[in-house]
Design brief:
Blueprint (H helix, E strand, L loop, with lengths): L3 H18 L12 H25 L14 H31 L4 H11 L14 E3 L6 E2 L17 E2 L3 H27 L5 H25 L3 E3 L17 H18 L18 H28 L14 H4 L25 H9 L1
Antiparallel strand pairs: 1-4, 2-3
């Protein structure tokens, strides 16, 4: 006859055995948020851009000055643009730095400036397919890095000058300035029409972006500071200095996207890039929100330039003979011959292999 004590010992041994068989269940991993995917996009674009710029620097870039014309009125106007650009960078830069010092952190305005500057490498891609957007060499410039980019189709696009002071300032602080002005307009609309729908808010933002582009690109094209080769049917300016109707429409994305990024905040003042990341550690959360902003800006600039603007040059016609400081020997037009590209878009003999390929596929 077994004792009760033996039964207790057996029971305790069994309990210990059960404890040994328990396997801890790992906590479920949080699913990726949309910020993770934008961060991956940022990484891909930054690698593409770094490859391009390293190859460009290794080749020894130099300014495009052969066709510079100091006697032209466009030269004086270009210099005035550069003075304004430098003053704008200094003024906005001081404002942003003060904000960082006051809040003891990298503010969203500072992050937007950095993200915009990181997207600047995409600017020469207007000429990714064909010579389409032509900057004047009267600006302080460097030879474009376009042809050093992997996958570029127009291998002669580095003949274009890149106005680093004027265009660089747009990417560095211009997006922030437009976001501040656009946000101000949205707040006015919201104050006057508290029940205004999102559609009406977006229409107000679109109107602001179109006006901003007409003041920047529209006026500059008429001053021969930068011009485009475009289809005559899209021209809303003069025959001698055409300006495409599609460019102000593209500006809705180009200027509207940064405005929305800065304007849309929750009741805690968090931007859309900061929301939904509370489960992450503070440093990880900050890094991910910043990288998602970088991806957002890279994707926005790439779509605007490569999809809504660059393809317009494939269908250019009746192209005018722009001044030499605009053409800069990039393609053959008028008395300018012997370029690395051949006939300019919209001139006799112009060939666009990509356009013909797309036509055959149809």
């Amino acid at each position: 006859m077994s004792s009760g004590l033996g039964k207790v010992d057996a029971t305790q041994s069994g309990a210990h055995a059960v404890h040994r068989d328990v396997v801890p269940v790992p906590a479920p991993k949080a699913p990726w948020r949309w910020q993770h995917y934008l961060a991956v996009i940022a990484g891909l674009f930054l690698v593409w851009g770094a490859w391009t710029l390293v190859a460009w620097l290794a080749a020894g870039p130099s300014p495009v000055t052969v066709y510079r014309d100091p006697a032209a009125s466009a030269y004086t106007i270009a210099t005035a643009y550069e003075v304004v650009a430098v003053m704008l960078v200094l003024g906005v830069g001081a404002y942003v730095v003060r904000g960082c010092l006051r809040q003891h952190r990298l503010t969203f305005d500072a992050q937007l400036c950095i993200a915009g500057l990181l997207a600047y490498w995409l600017d020469p891609f207007y000429n990714f397919l064909v010579p389409m957007n032509l900057y004047s060499s009267n600006f302080v410039n460097v030879g474009s890095w376009c042809s050093y980019a992997p996958f570029v189709i127009n291998k002669a696009c580095s003949g274009s000058p890149e106005p680093i002071l004027v265009i660089g300032s747009i990417y560095l602080v211009g997006f922030l300035v437009c976001a501040m002005l656009g946000g101000r307009i949205l707040r006015i609309v919201e104050a006057r029409c508290p029940r205004a729908s999102m559609a009406k808010m977006l229409m107000a933002l679109a109107a602001f972006a179109i006006v901003a582009d007409l003041l920047i690109d529209g006026i500059s094209s008429q001053l021969n500071l930068w011009n485009q080769f475009i289809p005559a049917g899209l021209n809303i300016a003069t025959a001698a200095r055409p300006f495409p109707a599609t460019l102000p429409l593209s500006a809705i994305l180009f200027f509207g996207a940064p405005t929305l990024a800065r304007y849309l905040r929750d009741d805690q003042g968090r931007t859309i890039f900061e929301r939904g990341l509370d489960h992450l550690r503070p440093h990880t959360r900050k890094a991910l929100s910043f990288l998602s902003l970088v991806g957002y800006m890279q994707l926005m600039v790439a779509v605007t330039i490569l999809i809504t603007i660059a393809p317009v040059g494939l269908y250019a016609n009746n192209s005018p003979a722009y001044p030499a400081h605009i053409i800069n020997g990039q393609c053959d037009i008028g008395s300018m011959r012997g370029s690395g590209y051949g006939p300019c878009p919209g001139t006799p003999g112009f060939t666009a292999p990509l356009r013909h390929l797309l036509s055959k596929q149809r």
